[in-house]
Amino acid sequence: MCRLLIAAALAAALASPAVAQSTAADWRMADEIVASIQAPRIPARVVRVKGPTDGKADARPAIMAAIRQASRAGGGRVVLGPGVWFSKGPIHLKSRIDLHLEAGATLLFSPEPADYLPVVKTRWEGTEVMSYSPLIYAADVEDVAITGAGVIDGNAQSGFHAWHKTAEPDFQRLRRMGFDGVPLRRRVFAEGTYLRPSIIQILGGKRVKLEGYTVKNSPFWVNHLVYVDHAVVRGITVDSMFPNNDGVDVDSSTYVLIENSKFRTGDDSVVVKSGRDLDGRTIARPSTHVVVRNNDMGGEDGIALGSEMSGGIAHVFFTDNVLRKGASAIRFKANLDRGGTVEHVRVRNFTVEDFGTLFWFQLNYPGELGGNFPSTYRDIVFEDIKVQNVGVVFEGHAPAAAPLDGVLIKDVSVASAKTNFVLENVRGLTLDNLQIGGQRFDGRLSAVSAPGPDRR
Question: Cα–Cα distances in Å, from 456 out to 362, 377, 386, 446?
Fold first, then answer.
């Protein structure tokens, strides 16, 4: 692939698109989103779980009995006190239930994958499927919470952890099913298949709160919100470094706040998604009205959008976050099977320490399934960001049929970088006081180059 290292004085090579703008109205919208999020309405009733806490005997029957008891009474808080609560299988939540882990409580899950059958409806990397149950799971619920200062432990010895090495035939088959529109009832991936479940998944919910707890040793994605409207993720700690351990996945969900949390993850700290390929475009549920603020992030990637974004993403605000160290600080992804539009994204007031790439748009991965549905990313603003060290400041790759445009970088300071720009089919990248190693860059950059293998 032809790589273009662009100087600031380069004039636009193509007709300039509308320039993304940062306005006070943007951040008023962010405040309005936060103010409009509805909290769960859960009765004050308390049910304390009475069961074994030695970490060996199965406490799941006692936990599920307490959930059923609270649910029959109209809802309430189900409390795990101090001790190690061993669960030989998944915990399924119901509406108007708060699963509360007190300080000193650990919910430790069985290491045996067979304990997470029978299959349930889930969404796996953006495609709906009937597969292994997430470890904590709630489907089609209202007013649900997981709270408290305790620990949720997916188990370092879990058999799921090794499945990332054997899963490819299964996930390729599932992706093809989603791409071809195979009905959900025929997408059954049970015993003998290798799709790892999330440790926490809410699939279809209204008014959800995730607050206070620590998660570790997740088999796959960590906190997965799918088809959720009105959710708050606050003050959690994710310390989980296995493959694909995203901290929070906002997936076809709306009115979501993620704040005051700490992420040390094996993949993205926080990522916004909306489904994969035809499956995502058919379901057509975008992720919109999302605010991510005041978090400490250390993952392979800091914040991300996609690559499963076929249902669309809009009105997403990231502010006042610290990004520690990883491959990409800010990574936006798509490929030619996806389609979908991402727009009105605002990122400001970040501190970034040490990453391979600061801004990375990779929108032209070849379609694995032969699709020709270019994705559109537009109206994106990065501003007031202080950066210590990166390998590449801005790397952007897009298909020739759908160049990346409408991106503004404003008041960004980078102390040290090896490479400033790597551009392929980028149109109208606007720089307004971008400082790299003491040198100021202003103006418009555009570049067109022939497709070729990814430099990585």
Answer: 11, 22, 26, 22
pTM over 0.85: yes
- The pLDDT of 19-40, averaged and rounded, is 93
Consecutive H or E run containing 98: strand 97-101
Vertex 338, ends 400 and 352: CA angle to 5°?
80
DSSP lists the bridge partners of residue 249 as 224, 271
- 65-117, pLDDT tens digit by residue? 999 999 999 999 999 999 999 999 999 999 999 999 999 999 999 999 999 99
CA atoms within 13 A on the CB side of 456: 13
CA dist 164 to 105, 139, 220, 381, Å? Answer: 29, 25, 9, 35
215-243: pLDDT as tens digits: 999 999 999 999 999 999 999 999 999 99
Tokens describing residue 261: 């949390």
Cα 413 to its chain centre, rounded Å, is 26
The confidence score (pLDDT) of residue 11 equals 35
Residues contacting residue 425 through CB under 8 Å, at least 6 positions apart: 364, 396, 397, 398, 399, 400, 402, 403, 404, 447, 448, 449
User: Contact, 255 vs 228, CB < 8 A?
Assistant: no
Closest CA to 228 of 70, 40, 35, 74: 40
Dist CA 189 CA 182 (whole Å): 14
Kindly provide the residue ranges of all beta strands, DSSP E only, lying in 105-188, ordered along the sequence.
Answer: 105-109, 120-124, 127-131, 136-147, 151-153
